[in-house]
TrEMBL record:
Residues 7-224 form the ABC transporter domain. Keywords: ATP-binding, Nucleotide-binding, Transport. The keyword ATP-binding applies. Pfam families: ABC_tran (PF00005). The lineage of its organism: Bacteria, Bacillati, Bacillota, Bacilli, Bacillales. InterPro entries: AAA+_ATPase (IPR003593), ABC_transporter-like_ATP-bd (IPR003439), ABC_transporter-like_CS (IPR017871), P-loop_NTPase (IPR027417). This is ABC transporter ATP-binding protein. The keyword Nucleotide-binding applies. GO terms for molecular function: ATP binding; ATP hydrolysis activity. PANTHER family: ABC TRANSPORTER I FAMILY MEMBER 17. It comes from the Bacteria. It comes from Aneurinibacillus danicus.
Length: 224
């Protein structure tokens, strides 16, 4: 791992105000992510882990502070281009009606390209699904199968930074271990990974740097 920063947060604040409550998920958070890092993110439910990912992909903007990707402020990045490079795999899979193949080939079609059935089968194997799934309708899949198709489609984009929001929450132990192994391989190929998890055991298995987010503060924990 090099120490070259790929993402930087400088004094980032984010809060929400509604008529009924006020919540401040990020209070003056400053942190740097080195290129090729594998960071797990933990913290109680509702503390702002997903909010952080929304800010990193410009789905929302901070109230104050600056986020920089590859030396350039996020505000200067074209959002669709940014989101292919810093890619958010949502906690609830976003798939459209149609077959698994329709969904896997969507990013290529959007770019005016096409991908082969063989490549789509290899994407499915990476998430422990057989090629038989290619013709299955999205509506017929279980929550865990949808989650894996969603991850397979994201891997096809080969993002520089992969943001995973509880990607194994609907999976059994065997599939969870398979996905962990696949994402480790993705990381070892030189990519940066941020992984939100509620499981301290999973955080320990996945890497030695954990960010703990609570009460708006981000604490960096490095395992010995
Ligand atoms: N659009 C919004 N409007 C108002 N409040 C919001 C909005 N989005 C998030 N919040 C609030 O901000 C806080 C952080 O939410 P966030 O989804 O980031 O938490 P989280 O740590 O990812 O939670 P979980 O572990 O349950 O997924 C919560 O209190 C939530 O209710």
């Amino acid at each position: 791992m090099t120490s070259e920063p790929v993402l930087e947060l400088h004094h980032v604040f984010k809060s929400y105000h509604t008529p009924h409550y006020r919540s401040t998920p990020l209070k003056d958070v400053s942190v740097t992510i080195a290129k090729g890092a594998f960071i797990t993110i933990t913290g109680p439910s509702g503390t702002g882990k997903s909010t952080l990912f929304r800010l990193l992909t410009r789905l929302e903007e901070p109230d104050a502070g600056r986020i920089v990707y590859l030396g350039k402020p996020l505000l200067e990045w074209d959002p669709p281009r940014l989101r292919r490079k810093v890619h958010y795999v949502f906690q609830s899979p976003v798939l459209f009606p149609g077959t698994v193949a329709d969904n896997l080939s969507y990013p290529a079609r959007l770019a005016g390209d096409s991908i082969t059935e063989e490549y789509m089968s290899s994407l499915l194997r990476r998430v422990a699904l057989s090629e038989k799934y290619l013709s299955r309708g999205i509506g017929d899949l279980s929550g865990g199968e949808k989650q894996r198709v969603n991850i397979a489609r994201s891997l096809s984009l080969e993002p520089d930074i992969l943001l995973l929001d509880e990607p194994t929450s609907a999976l059994d132990e065997k599939s969870t271990k398979h996905i962990e192994q696949e994402i480790r391989a993705y990381h070892e190929a030189g990519h940066t990974v941020l992984w939100i998890t509620h499981s301290p055991e999973q955080a320990k298995r996945l890497g030695n740097v954990t960010w703990h987010l609570e009460d708006g503060c981000l604490e960096v924990l490095v395992a010995p």
